[in-house]
Amino acid sequence: MEKMSRVTTALGGSVLTGRTMHCHLDAPANAISVCRDAAQVVVAGRSIFKVYAIEEEQFVEKLNLRVGRKPSLNLSCADVVWHQMDENLLATAATNGVVVTWNLGRPSRNKQDQLFTEHKRTVNKVSFHPTEAHMLLSGSQDGFMKCFDLRRKDSVSTFSGQSESVRDVQFSVRDYFTFASTFENGNVQLWDIRRPDRCEKMFTAHNGPVFCCDWHPEDRGWLATGGRDKMVKVWDVTTPRAREVHCVQTIASVARVKWRPECRHHLATCSMMVDHNIYVWDVRRPFVPAAMFEEHRDVTTGIAWRHPHDPSFLLSGSKDSTLCQHLFRDASQPVERANPEGLCYGLFGDLAFAAKESLVTTELGRKPYAGDRRHPIFFKRKLDPAEPFAGLASSALSIFETETSGSGISWFVDTAQRYALAGRPLAELCDHNAKVARELGRNQVAQTWTMLRIIYCSPGLVPSTNLNHSVGRGSSCGLQLMSSFNLKEMAPGLGNETWLDRSKGDTRSDTVLLDSSATLITNEDNEETEGSDVPADYLLGDVEGDEEELYLLDPEHTHTDEPEYVLPQEAFPLRHEIVDTPPGPEHLQDKADSPHVSGNEADTASLAPVDSFSLISVSHALYDNRLPPDFFSTLVRDMLHFYAEQGDVQMAVSVLIVLGERVRKDIDEQAQEHWYTSYIDLLQRFRLWNVSNQVVKLSTSRAISCLNQASTSLHVNCSHCKRPMSGRGWVCGRCHRCASMCAVCHHVVKGLFVWCQGCSHGGHLQHIMKWLEGSSHCPAGCGHLCEYS
Amino acid sequence: MAEGENEVRWDGLCSRDSSTRETALEHIRQIVLRKTEYLCSVKETPYRPSEGLSNAVSLDGLNKLLAHLLMLSKRCPFKDVREKSEFILKSVQELGIRIPRPLGHGPSRFIPEQEILQVGSEDAQMHALFADSFAALGRLDNITLVMVFHPQYLESFLKTQHYLLQMDGPLPLHYRHYIGIMAAARHQCSYLVNLHVNDFLHVGGDPKWLNGLENAPQKLQNLGELNKVLAHRPWLITKEHIEGLLKAEEHSWSLAELVHAVVLLTHYHSLASFTFGCGISPEIHCDGGHTFRSPSVSNYCICDIANGNHNVDEMQVNSAGNVSVSDSFFEVEALMEKMKQLQECRDEEEASQEEMASRFEIEKRESMFVFSSDDEEVTPARDVSRHFEDTSYGYKDFSRHGMHVPTFRVQDYCWEDHGYSLVNRLYPDVGQLIDEKFHIAYNLTYNTMAMHKDVDTSMLRRAIWNYIHCMFGIRYDDYDYGEINQLLDRSFKVYIKTVVCTPEKVTKRMYDSFWRQFKHSEKVHVNLLLIEARMQAELLYALRAITRYMT
């Protein structure tokens, strides 16, 4: 009795303190329940039934209710519940079907109070009425629920679920007369305690057994159920038909579910098998648990919040024979470990990207790419402004579509169709192709064509050399404005086909340094070759070997002749030192050393020196046309390889065809063949049959040109006797009639003949087209439904 | 004769499209006639020793074909196939070739043929089942024909079996059949072994494996131990067994594979029980299912001799003659009376806890000594025993030594809560299928008992189920094991015990001597309970070991 007095004195404390702790039990626990004072917990199992006091630092065993010499099955508990009104009253459900009540106030060692042996099978669950002192409910494997009045010896009423075993029974917290029961067949029933004849409401909640349910402590009519199908569902049962409000998918069957006090949307679950952790879910965020307790080494069998108004203490019992107190602040939060961004490619190359909303909005503020090539679509989750946790769970999803008809692909088709590959002098071909490329906004390619023209048809450019030369001199005199004017003036002579795509010009501060180093190298090259006869473009390309950097340089040649382009005024003073482009190498040396170069902020400024360089180098090139014709061939070869490696086989093949014999011998036969086949394959994918055929025809590689020779025969049937045409020509060998009669005008067709593959009738293309506009039947009257597409 | 042309393709017959079946049949007819004509022509020419061997081979091939046709003519659910097969057989006979005839007495040796549903007279629901089964396996086996007494169960059974053998699963198809062979061989069930040897070869299994377990891959050999323990003493399975299989380096099993294998093993162990328990006859097209001899030569099949049933007809006369009708009628009445008593008085004579516990122990102990008196040794047929090693390991030797079976509390680990979740996690959907099958078997009732109608048989069914689990040491806390003694008489217990533990020793005498007044369909029902309870018991032990390994 001394023990008891201590138990009762512990009732007073209202402020909960404690830490995450655990204590070892002697045997696996099946269920736990907390006393209403939040200072004691009862643990029940097959061979354990003890009361523990929850102290600040540890659990202290208070009472062993398992007394008596012989172990009795009445003590083998499937469930235990502590009365929430009376701290002396406990009830257990025994595996043999007995319901036992315990009175801790009894003076003897044996606290057993009453024994109800009415159930035929294991009792799965017992539940006290939340406010009524003497009302106890039990649910059993035999499919019955019984209500006991503890003042009487046997049950007051019996409720028949009309089905298999009852897995859980719970009195409603809010409605005095209502209780819920869950069944092994997946049903949930709501009963009125006064009406044992039939249930008030029934609905199928889960696929397979419903192991547990819990009424929401505050929201009237909210019932959470957990089932073997790994789901936790929250139902609103106030409506005539129960409505599923939330659904949480866990990773294992749900054994217990308990709403978290004071947190409207939180509930704790533990599983029956495989998974040993306890999760606390925010039901509005059903994919990631809000908190996770990982202390147990075997399945958790019982969970209970320590105090009905304190959300931070959770108690749990487990098959691993431990009793734990978990502190919410010590829980691991999977959200923190999870990657908050998601990225996924769709089937058609669309890209979906989900991230925290705050992240996305800041990014949108800049919005540099949004309008250009991609079209983000934003979905925003609807948020409940009343919820404090809403902010955590909000995210934004953006989807980036690849532009199907955009610049990505259409340039390829356009280029393929418009390029001229043969039939005109080389210079004209180059000019034409450069023009095409420029119009499509592909400046580097356009420039390349121009260069090719210069390289291989240089005599045509002689008149412009003088001008260029003078420009070089002009700039060397150091007059800033002059030089820019000169640039503009000389532009037509240099290659007026160049054009700048401003949007592509990436503006970065480090370009300045790159430029200076590049120019330095150019300079050295110039010294070596003594003529600097190589277009600066190529040299720079070689040195850097990166397309993006090439772009930096490319425009520099080009904005000179862009009429709309005006150099920003404020950039001019800065260019002062650099711009005095020297005609000779020694000046270049100076410039490379100059620290002012890196001081330039705007790219326009940094571009200037290169402009002048290229001018100079080109002008030199134009001077020296005494070089052997194959002088450039290695460069051109490298250029072709460069394009092919960039994935632009179109360029490689086109140049190869246009230049023909001039470069063919310098390039590996296999590489050529490889380019051809890739390009032809691409063309055929875009259904550019004519172009591909032209390419095949123009190709000099034998392996390619024989492609045209393969499978060229066409098998046709005679339009009269429907037999295959075996002989040559258009006369059928069997019926000795001409097969190529037009079905419309009945004349022999010469030239384009179109015929139906189904009935072998056909005729003049024009006639058939006209006929089929008005009728869908074959003009020969054979009744076949011909299609013309 | 080119080899490829004579390759008979039976799969066309499984089609639901009658014209496809028609063409397939026509093709078969041509091959058979060609072969027959060839043989006839050879016969007429003078005998040449060099040709003797090839003749024998081709005659053998033809005979196999004819046996298959015979099976089709009797067992195909499609009428057109049955008729056409018969027609082909007749035309072959007219050419002077001896055609086979079925041996035995229908699908079961225990149940008179006229009691069993004839193929062709089934109703629409059963026909759909038959067609499904035929489409999946290309045959309608005797097990199906006996189980069709309970179409509801049969449907679930076939669905499960089909899923286990042919649908998505972690194990390759030939492994599945081989595991089936291993499991059936444990009980020397030549019927199932023959059936699955054919299937095994059909899905491309290596014939070498069939020479014995030692020729199979190490991985399957490792499974032998689990098979042995599971079949005879499942309570001895520990997590060490599981660990041994899962951690065997390159021969190790994955958890999913292991669960698949365990389900297959338990399925075939219990199916072997059914085969023996209902006295399933060999399939018509398998060895021992047909004969080419004329009817006068022999009237009983090999299996009957092996089991000591010398003449089936005679036995039937004996069993019916020994017991007078009134006697057996009284049996049923007494059983019903007991059930009623138990239902009414259970609350009055409340037994103490110790009493309850000891009742379970007594029942468990007694179940070990329940054995048929005619415990003669049956030497397994040579071709079956090669599929397993350690033939001496069985249920018998430990029960004689009185070994203690530890108690397994179903409240701590049961199928519905734990087993299901584990299986479904590792081998999706199968948990659901097996769960359904258990449910149907456990809850199946027509509310009849022998000649009585509107009887609640749940008590009897539960007694049978729990008795079987009791033999495996599985205890239900909420069951009074005293009921078993009241409801199940000794001859019934002998039958249950034999079917579940040593099915190969079941005789027709045992089958006939229990529940003499009950219908055959009810005895088949009992068998369904037996095999499902056995399967669940084995599964529970195996899955518990896996769970323990995992935690």
Compact overview of the structure:
Chain B: One of its GO terms (cellular component) is nucleus. By secondary structure, chain A is an alpha+beta fold.
Quantity of strands of chain A, as a count: 34
Helices of chain B, by number, come to: 24
- Kindly report the spatial arrangement of strands forming the biggest sheet of chain A: 1-28-27-26
Strand order of the largest sheet of chain B: 1-2
> Mind summarizing the main beta sheet of chain A?
4 strands, antiparallel
* Quaternary structure annotation: heterodimer
Helix content, binned percent of chain A:
25-40%
- What is the number of E strands of chain B? 6
The number of distinct helices of chain A, counting runs of at least 4 residues, comes to 23
GO biological process, one term (chain A): positive regulation of macroautophagy
Protein name (chain A): GATOR2 complex protein WDR24
Organism (chain A): Chrysochloris asiatica
Family (chain A): Belongs to the WD repeat WDR24 family.
Polypeptide structure, described:
- Chain A has a 4-stranded antiparallel β-sheet, with no helix packed on it.
- In chain A, helix 6 packs antiparallel against helix 7 and helix 13 (571-579) packs parallel to helix 16 (603-623).
- The longest helix of chain A has 21 residues, at 603-623.
- Helices cover 32% and strands 24% of the residues of chain A.
- Chain A contains 23 helices and 34 strands.
- Chain A starts with a helix and ends in a 15-residue tail after the last helix.
- With 551 residues, chain B is mainly α.
- In chain B, helix 1 (18-44) packs antiparallel against helix 2 and helix 11 (255-277) packs antiparallel against helix 24.
- Chain B has a two-stranded antiparallel sheet. Chain B has a two-stranded parallel sheet with strand order 3-6. Chain B has a two-stranded antiparallel sheet with strand order 4-5.
- In chain B, strand 4 and strand 5 (452-453) form a beta hairpin.
- Chain A: Keywords: Autophagy, Lysosome, Membrane, Metal-binding, Repeat, Transferase, Ubl conjugation pathway, WD repeat, Zinc, Zinc-finger.
- Chain A: InterPro entries: WD40/YVTN_repeat-like_dom_sf (IPR015943), WD40_repeat_CS (IPR019775), WD40_repeat_dom_sf (IPR036322), WD40_rpt (IPR001680), WDR24 (IPR037590).
- Chain A: Pfam families: WD40.
- Chain A: Residues 580-603 are annotated as: Disordered.
